[in-house]
Design brief:
This protein has 420 residues and is α+β, with helices and mostly antiparallel strands. The protein is 27% helix and 20% strand. The protein is built from 8 helices and 18 strands. A 6-stranded antiparallel beta sheet has the order 5-8-12-11-10-9, covered by helices on one side. The longest helix is centred in the N-terminal third of the chain and has 26 residues. It is flat.
Length: 420
């Protein structure tokens, strides 16, 4: 039989020492049952007086001074089995005192080892670490941004190479961008113009080397229609106040002298009284040069620095203009990417080119290769310009507008703007 613990009144656990060897002897020699042994152990303990116990079980009164009889099944003493054999008890009422019944009924509290776990770690340390890390990352990015953009000067961040970012505005540096094959001669010409200007003036700090700032024009047909090249190197002068009135003509004269000394001759007259020069041996074109402009610059480029697709489109548009107007188109600029569909049934294409101070509108059927010139205007055109074919071709066209507005015209009779 396993060692077990019993409870004395008051909740004090008492260990009943029952030796298996001794118990077996008592069963075999005295023919005692297991209940007899337990009863003897319990009877040997001193009896403590206790207060009346309230119990709602049947057979016990709320307060009693005399124990009531309680019957508990008890195995017969005859033929008691040995401990190593299963004991089969037959129910036989046994009268015991209420106190004994209370001790038997009281549940045995099993004492189990209590596991003591370590104190759970707080997450505050991790949160603080993450907050500090985020602050450091934000501060590091801010410092990097200020250094790399020039807000804060540092030798760690040099100037960006011009071949990485092609500026729309002049590059404030004398060094030329990284050159590719064929650029050397063009850059040599630009440096020659700079040297002539610096020889005559002490204001060279305002003279800025440029890359793709302005583009020289070249002739695309026998009529002399001018179209812009798509790459250039040059110079730009940044005037202070009204000094351009006196200084611009001097710059123009000095640049012209430098080009003449380098073997250049007059090539073409551009818009706004500008002139272009060419070196026929090298095929380099420089310009525009204008003595009266408050904006002074000169650019140089090889004549073969062109976009073949855009130049082919420009040639076709110049032919369409001459067919309708009866005279050559002097200048235009256009990009193939600007072509968009038009017409009520979207079966037309239209494009807007830039001429001398006006927008020039062209259209054609998608199935055709030949373009038709529509009109040129600086503002909303009159509805009288539109014939039936033009209305059909340009109806719903939005390619002329930066905000996607459909083509409109002014009704001369009502003065109201309406869609074509």
């Amino acid at each position: 039989m396993d060692n077990s613990e019993d409870k004395m009144p008051g909740g004090v656990a008492k260990k009943i020492d029952v030796s298996l060897d001794e118990t077996e002897k008592q069963f075999n020699e005295d023919e005692k049952t297991l209940e007899d042994i337990i009863d003897e152990e319990l009877a040997s303990e001193p009896v403590e007086e206790s207060e009346p116990v309230r119990n709602s079980d049947e057979g016990l009164s709320e307060e009693t001074s005399e124990p009531e009889s309680v019957e508990i099944p008890r195995a017969p003493e005859k033929d008691a089995p040995k401990l190593d054999e299963p004991v089969e008890l037959e129910e036989e009422p046994v009268k015991i005192s209420e106190k004994e019944a209370e001790e038997i009924r009281e549940p045995v509290v099993e004492e189990r080892p209590v596991k003591v776990y370590g104190k759970r770690k707080s997450g505050k340390g991790l949160i603080i670490f993450l907050v500090i890390l985020i602050i450091l990352l934000v501060a590091g990015f801010a410092v990097y941004y200020c250094l790399s953009t020039g807000v804060v000067k540092s030798d760690l961040f040099g100037e960006k190479a011009d071949n990485c970012i092609k500026p729309a505005d002049p590059v404030d540096k004398k060094e030329t961008p990284n050159m590719v094959s064929g650029d050397e001669k063009v850059i040599e010409i630009v440096n020659g113009i700079r040297a002539e200007i610096e020889r005559n003036h002490d204001k060279s700090a305002n003279l800025i080397t440029t890359y793709n700032h302005t583009f020289p024009l070249h002739k695309i047909n026998e009529d002399g229609t001018l179209f812009a090249l798509n790459k250039s190197y040059g110079l730009y002068y940044q005037f202070n106040g009204d000094e351009w009135v006196e200084f611009a003509p001097q710059l123009n004269s000095e640049a012209t002298k430098a080009l003449t000394d380098l073997g250049f001759a007059e090539y073409a007259d551009g818009p706004f009284e500008t002139k272009y020069y060419i070196n026929n041996d090298s095929g380099i074109i420089c310009g525009p040069l204008s003595p009266s402009s408050s904006f002074w610059s000169v650019s140089c480029a090889n004549e073969n620095w062109i976009s073949e697709e855009n130049e082919k489109l420009a040639t076709n548009l110049a032919d369409a203009y001459k067919t309708k107007k009866g005279e050559p188109m002097k200048y235009l600029t256009v990009e193939k990417e600007k072509i968009s569909e038009s017409g009520k049934n979207k079966n037309y294409e239209a494009v807007m080119a830039q001429g001398y101070g006006a927008a020039e509108i062209f259209y054609k059927k998608k199935t055709d290769t030949k373009w038709t010139y529509a009109f040129g205007a600086q503002d909303i055109p009159s509805c009288l310009l539109f014939d039936e074919e033009m209305r059909e071709a340009l109806s719903g066209w939005t390619g002329h507008s930066s905000i996607g507005k459909a083509m409109t015209c002014i009704n001369e009779a009502t003065g109201v703007e309406e869609e074509v």
